[in-house]
Design goal:
Layout (H helix, E strand, L loop, with lengths): L16 E3 L3 H4 L8 E5 L4 E4 L7 E3 L4 H23 L7 H19 L5 E7 L6 H9 L8 E4 L1 H14 L1 H7 L3 E7 L6 E2 L7 E3 L4 E6 L6 E4 L1 H14 L3 E4 L4
Parallel strand pairs: 7-11
Antiparallel strand pairs: 1-4, 2-3, 2-12, 5-6, 7-10, 8-12, 9-10
Length: 246
């Protein structure tokens, strides 16, 4: 039973619906508060940034949401703002960290972690639900009868491990992110880029990772935008999204 509702009134203000991709970035694709979402099955919908397609339901713990995710998001958003202000990128690692975080959160929002036996036959009883939520709000992991933890805490443990895993860090070693700017057609974004070392951060800007880049900032034609958008479509898993330019 991985998904659990909070107690009535949510007294500890736990995040119930969690974005796997930053709302601040999704909003950049909005016109009048909505953006276009194109599903792989052909369905097209106009959605708000809080649409459930961008979120999981308590897929990870509050510690993951605030203590771990928010610092990575803030550092990444700072780089996006620098790009939009014409200042360029000053911290490539911040972009790499977010690229990995986005991928991991997307995975755990889709493949929700099951409850997990942290300890075998641990001699303890479950706490009442509100006290569990108090502990969660303070970044703690409540252990239930027999040594089990809820799936969202297992997801947090997994994501923390994967963010620090040496093999994952090596993927980004030596990479810099090139700014690709369109003066014409709009870029689209995949729901998640996975192992593709690229991401769209607004209808105007796309980032591509590489080593020893000659051009830190380049401009592309409409035909090249079409090629890069096809790459985003192919990288997407369930849907891709864009500004509604119709």
């Amino acid at each position: 039973m991985p998904f659990e509702k909070t107690t009535k009134g949510n007294p500890y203000r736990l995040t119930k619906e969690q974005h796997f991709h930053m709302k601040a970035i999704i909003k950049k694709f909005c016109i009048n508060g909505k953006l276009k979402v194109i599903y792989k099955n052909g369905d097209i919908r106009l959605c708000k940034p809080d649409n459930k397609c961008f979120m999981g339901n308590r897929a990870w713990s509050q510690e993951m949401e605030t203590t771990i995710s928010h610092p990575i998001e803030r550092s990444f958003l700072s780089q996006v703002e620098k790009i939009e202000n014409g200042e360029g990128i000053s911290n490539h690692a911040a972009i790499s960290d977010y690229h990995l975080l986005w991928c991991l959160r997307w995975h755990y929002s889709i493949m929700v972690a099951e409850d997990y036996d942290l300890y075998k036959n641990f001699p303890c009883r479950s706490l009442d639900k509100e006290f569990e939520e108090l502990l969660e709000s303070k970044g703690k992991v409540p252990v239930r009868s027999g040594g089990q933890i809820a799936g969202r805490f297992k997801a947090t443990l997994d994501i923390k491990t994967l963010l620090e895993l040496e093999d994952n860090k090596k993927i980004y070693d030596g990479l810099e992110w090139q700014i690709v700017e369109s003066k014409g057609k709009s870029f689209i974004s995949a729901d998640c880029y996975g192992d593709l070392m690229a991401m769209t951060v607004s209808p105007k800007y796309r980032l591509i990772a590489g080593k020893e880049l000659n051009d830190k900032h380049c401009f592309v034609t409409d035909d090249e935008v079409d090629e890069l958008n096809l790459e985003s479509m192919n990288a997407s898993h369930n849907f891709y999204f864009c500004r509604d330019d119709s």
